[in-house]
Amino acid sequence: MSTQTDTHRYAPFTYATAKLSDAGAAGGAPEFRLLELLPSTTGNEPRCHIFVAEVDKSSQQYRALSYTWGLGPKDHSILVVASSSDAPNLSPAQPEALPITESLHTALLHFRQAREPVRLWIDQICINQDDYAEKGSQVGPMGSIYRNAQQVLVWLGPAAEHSDALMDAWQSIGQAARDWGLESYYTRERWDLLPPIAQNAEPSDPQTVAFQALMRTAAETFRPLLRARAHTDWFSRPWFSRAWIVQEFCLCPDTVFVCGTRTLPVELVMLALQVIQYALGRFELLSLIRGDPAAPAANDNDSDDNDNNNNNNDNNDNNDNDSDTNLTPFSVLNDILTKPTARLFSCRQRRRKFDLNLPGATGDRLHALLRKLYVEHNTQATLPRDRIYSLLDLAVDRAELGLKPDFTDQGLPEAEARMLTRAARAMIVANPSGTVDILCFAQFPKSLPLHLLPSWVPDWRGGLRPSFYSVNDVVAEHMFAACGGELRVRPVPYVRDDGSDLAGPLVDEESVLGLGGYLVDTIAAVAEGGAWDDMEWEGPTAAVRFLGFLRQVDALFERAMAREELPRLYRSQERRAEARWRVPIGDLYWTREEGTRRAPAEAVVYHRQAREFFEYIAVGAGLIAVEELERRIEEWNLSESAVTGRIERGEVGGFYRETMKLFVGKRPFVTTEGYLGMGPADAAAGDVVVVFCGGRIPFVLRPLCAAWREKRLFKYVGEAYCDGVMDGEVVERGEFSAFLLV
């Protein structure tokens, strides 16, 4: 039944009988609304009571709903029936209609019980969405509302093809993993004990035997589901892309997924995914998942029962004519690891440990949460300010940031820009957690309608590029310290100069960020041929492209070395000459075994090997003579197997090439003194390279007037690697300066 019909039959609900007091604003106990969803015996349309309660006194007396509003209009309704305590003179036959979206209407019909009322908190109903002041005041205690709930119901929607089977698989494998004790390994002390168990390092160890059996069961259980891409369909449901769901998902100890008629604790999905990831690392289990004929046993200790199960699956294989031969460990792992569950469970685990005050638990600061949701991910938020507000209750630094939800003038571009600017400033200059790393995500062009944002403010749109330098300083040591010992951000005030050619309407105080730091040098030239935008590897064409990237660096290197005087920050000509191979990889080096680390001295060899390999592949494009190719074939013993093996071992620069991909979207530059680096794609001659106090890497700024050394007004351009300044050299030998970013 649509809202149009109900609106004609019933008066609209106005919240008059469930008015919130201002006690919370005055320092008293904050209030919120709850609803009692009435049993289905009351009629076809969902009906409810709405009443007011105190947040702190309602712990464990309600369930909170996490769901997606949907994109459609509010063309359905729920009928609000006054209770006798609300309006003793109001007849039960006089309900009022409250418009709701179709997705919520569907959820209410699902959760409605046959005989008993269900007490719920639902934002769309319990907050007056037309009252912006109320929205702002209610978003404040929203974290407490979810944290205090008896249970959070994550409504994914009605059942669809394979969803029931997938929910059952999550349940069975997740519970088996919990019974095995997988969660006990989720500590810093025990985490490293798990990979040897998964890799069957000690086949006679009882724990290993049990885990190997669990992985085989998981492979057998998930095989038809992975082949049908059931997990992809499940993770593609709209709920997983909403910004607000993150805090809704993370704060309540008892949170469950609800899909159709199936319900399961969210942790069981996390545990099942962990088992599947380990299973995909075992060739024999991957063969089982793919349905390869004569898939070998998982290990030599398999029981007869496991052999029988394997025979049964072989019989099923004979009947399976649509085998997905493209099901590789990388494709499935990519499917799993790029889905939102990885970051959701990371946020939940870290916040739960923080709330429990466990040793070493630090939780996530706001900037870390924003990176998890918006860097390389397309999280959806209705308003730009929601990208910030939806995470405040999850951020452990909320108090020191001093940010409060404000929905005044929501949707107006200048108002949205103002809110994001305040948030960026707070994250950069907050004491003691301020970080200039925020600047890495102020990327261009800014999304509409946020063109009014100052250059230094991220818009936090979905799909932001990661920084080339990403270190989780909670668990890993930093590799760079361009700021030397100046590890704290040093804000500087902006003093308006009414005599400046940039005074007046062009520069307002709120849009200016003043930071202390050190000037490295002015950019003299950027590489010809454009930025490193396409870093995919697909044969001869890619080889030509990567060879071109190295030649860009070579050209600027020759220009730098033509300047005989040693730049002031280099300690020797030998170290200066290393820029040729350090710059294309930003003095970092990635391998499968060790991840990203500071580039070792032998990377100079990998640089040469990568160049030679690019030239070898590029012969198909006519870049080198056939005679030269023949010489290299003889020199390298370049059989196909030999080349493949050498690439895998990093002996022909394969890992060097992979590390170059850290600089996608960047462009080589050389400075006036001869420093070589990688900067933003739109860096230009005349831009300056600076190091801010508290900054691990340099940044590129664009002077806004000819007298920039006096006015110190700049536009932010982007992050950079600059060889020779990554270990605090400019702080040791330079002069402290103020930089005003607009």
Automatic annotation (TrEMBL):
Q: Which residues form the Heterokaryon incompatibility domain?
A: 62-248
Q: Which Pfam families match?
A: HET, Het-6_barrel
Where is the stretch described as Disordered? 297-325
Task: List the InterPro entries hit by this protein, alphabetically.
Answer: HET, HetReg/Transcr_Mod
Protein's name according to its UniProt entry: HET-domain-containing protein
Organism name? Parathielavia hyrcaniae
Taxonomically, what lineage is the organism?
Answer: Eukaryota, Fungi, Dikarya, Ascomycota, Pezizomycotina
